[in-house]
Amino acid sequence: MSITCQNSSVTELKIMGDKLAKVSVFNGFAIPNQTLSQSFSIDSFVVTLARLSTLRVLSLVSLGIWGPLPDKIHRLSSLELLDLSSNFMFGAVSQQLSRLVNLQILTLDSNFFNGTPPNWLDSLSKLQVLSLRNNCLKGQFPSSICRIRTLTDIAFSHNELFGRLPDLSTLTSLHLLDLRDNHLDSELPPMPKGLFTVLLNNNSFSGEIFDQFGKLNQLQHLDLSFNLLCGPPPSALFSLPNISYLNLASNMLTGELPSHLSCGGKLGFVDISANRLIGSLPYCLGTTSGDRVVKFGGNCLASDFQHQQPESYCKAAYKERKSSMWKKIWLLIGIIGGAIVILLLVLGILILFRRYRSRPTLEQTAYPKFVQETAPSGISSELLANARLISQAAKIGTRGAPVHKVFTLEELEEATNNFDKSMFLGEGSLGKIYRGRLENGTYVAIRYLTLYRKYSVRNLNLRLDLLSKLRHPHLVGLLGHCIDDGGQDDSTVNRVFLIYEYVPNGDFRSHLSESCPEMVLTWSDRLAVLIGVAKAVHFLHTGVMPASFSNRLKTNNILLDEHRIAKLSDYGMSIITEDFESLEGKGDGQKSWHITRLEDDVYKFGFILLESLVGPIVSGKGEAFLINEMASFGSQDGRQRIVDPIVLTTSTQESLSIVISITTKCISPQSSPRPSFEDVLWNLQYAAQVQASADSDQKSDAASSHS
User: Fold this and answer.
1) Helix, strand, coil distribution of the chain in percent, nearest 5
2) Nearest Cα residue to 35 out of 679, 672, 674
3) How many secondary structure helices (H) and strands (E) does the chain include?
4) Three-class SS state of 30
5) I want to staple 449 with a disulfide (CB 3.0 to 4.6 A). Which of 215, 261, 429, 431 is the partner?
6) CA distance linking residue 25 with residue 35, whole number of Å
7) DSSP code of 36?
8) Which DSSP string do the residues of 595-660 spell out, in sequence order?
9) How far apart are CA 398 and CA 388, in angstroms?
10) Which percentage of the chain shows pLDDT scores above 70?
């Protein structure tokens, strides 16, 4: 608590608690944790505070305050700063806030405000900071905000905003724009030139990145990843004088980056992966420059350093886009022409109707037949419909990927020399794994599962088809499957073989062990692996329908290819091993299942983070030992004792602290403090950026000393 007085009057009241705004699900009902008592009345509380007539600053954070924001809030007429973040406030944002004409900072983050975003905010003519992150606001971005010329920060991330983002160029004082994780689907609008940070990732923005973005000379941090942006990225983006973080990953960018592309001196992190770029990687983004982290996998670039698609894949996408544009033009012409024809027909019919209106007519209407497709047993027709609605992310992930094939048992026996012991790779909870070589010379990994027959072959094929849709650069690719029912209709088991791409460079766990010093990864390399896996899991949670949870996350299920690109294995097994009835539950049950599985992945990933910090879990001690050891992270001496020496010698304190903080949250015994996978990925990328900047500065200092 902090109280500030001036001339015997209270001007500032700041109280921060530890009651995080999270909910638990019990019997299908969302129950807030750690709220104030049921007798608490926010209405009475505001009336009491209104007696402090000179109160200019009110900050009540993480106190467990619950209820709607009362209309009586306008009585705090002297307020210049209002921060009610991380509480349990719900309902609409009261319009009575518009009467607080002196308000400069309004922060309502991490509550449960719902309804449409407030569109009366232009009444607050002095407002500088507007932050409503992590709420449940649903609707269009409020256009009235564009009239508040004093704004420096706008943050509406992690809501459900949709539709068009208006022209923001009038906000000449704006420095921060954070609209991450919404459903905005317009083209990118003009932006004010003074922006420092623009976070628009995880939306559905389309169209090209305008050249105007390459003129934002103050810009330091730009994230446009996971959208539907197309066309070539502006070259000027890379050379902005202050840009340090540039993320354009997972869009549909096409074309060739110019060979003479120049990079700004402060650029420490670039991600252009999972696009449709062709040609050579410019020198300033190549690994030879060594002064920045660059991610470029999943394109069609002429490079051997990260996984690339064949050039035909990207050119086909470019041609498809051009064809789509012409189709839209011809469609527009067709619509206009059709409208004219219809208009003429209507006029003709009216004339005929008037001429022959005295004649009786007999009309017959034929109704089409609706045929209900029979669903396989155990799967509802509703789930089947949802399963067929693969999201745009999944469609992008499957373009250019190998076609999923149904293998015969004979083909697999030939590939493994009849499952010879020499081809045996290991055995886990999901069955044995063999190495094989297909007839075309491709090496594969074959997982042999024994399933008790619960479903028909048709039902099982549907499940395997859903599993085959999970395509991502950081997932081990499923190339095909084989179902062997022994040729008996009354068999009690199904033998199922899953055929995956073969990943040759071992698992992540072996690259953390001191037993092979030449293989041990530095801190920057570990962060690259962790970011790759986090992207894959985030895709499994949000990129496909039905989503895949409980993905058996552990360090020995993360494989590294010949370029040390991380690929997650054993993912999506719940699609086969769990009953679809769990997914079919309506309302309460479905929500409970979803939250439980989601938290399970976050928790398990926390231990992957932990092993990345301290090395593989000591044999015989396991998770409980590591949880107890977490207290050692709080002091410098403790870190020296528990953190892997390789990590200590190759990391900065700031980058290390970011990862330690997110790790602690992930493996919290209670589910409420655990972050979303979006937050995990964000923190890891930020830690990598911090580390890259430090490494760049160190190399610059070393070069200066030599010269």
Assistant:
1) 35, 20, 45
2) 672
3) 15, 34
4) strand
5) 431
6) 15
7) P
8) HHHHHHHHHHHHHHHHHHHH-SPPTTTHHHHHHHHGGGGGSHHHHHHHS-HHHHHHS-HHHHHHHH
9) 14
10) 75
Cα 64 from Cα 84, distance rounded (Å): 10
Tell me how long the chain is.
707
> Cα–Cα distance between 492 and 506 in angstroms, integer?
36
Would you call 108 helix, strand, or coil by DSSP?
A: coil
Structural domains of the chain ordered from first start: 402-502 (3.30.200.20), 506-699 (1.10.510.10)
Find all residues with CB under 8 Å of 224, minimum gap 6, and list them: 188, 198, 200, 201, 205, 209, 247, 248, 251
Q: Contact 436/528 with Cβ under 8 angstroms?
A: no
Instruction: Determine the distance from the C-alpha atom of residue 331 to the mean position of all C-alpha atoms in its chain, rounded to a whole number.
Output: 34
In this predicted structure, the answer to whether residue 347 has a pLDDT above a threshold of 60 is yes
């920045």: which residue's tokens?
292
Q: Is 425 helix (H, G, I), strand (E, B) or coil?
A: strand
Its pTM stands at 0.50
* Residues forming beta bridges with residue 173, ordered by sequence position: none
Task: Write out the two tokens for 254.
Answer: 């096409």
Reduce the DSSP state of residue 13 to 3 states and report it: strand
pLDDT tens digit string along 127-175? 999 999 989 999 999 999 999 999 999 999 999 999 999 999 999 999 9
Cα 110 to Cα 63: distance, rounded to the nearest angstrom: 12
Q: At which residue do the structure tokens 């008037």 appear? A: 354
Both tokens of 544, joined, read: 């496909």
485 C-beta neighbours (distance < 10 Å), count: 16
Q: Which amino acid is at 434?
A: Y
Q: Is 340 exposed, middle or buried (0-12, 13-18, 19+ CB in 10 A)?
A: exposed
Give CA torsion, residues 42, 43, 47, 49, to 10 deg.
Answer: 20
Handedness of CA 556, 561, 564, 565 (dihedral sign): negative
Encode pLDDT of 484-493 as tens digits. Answer: 766 555 454 5
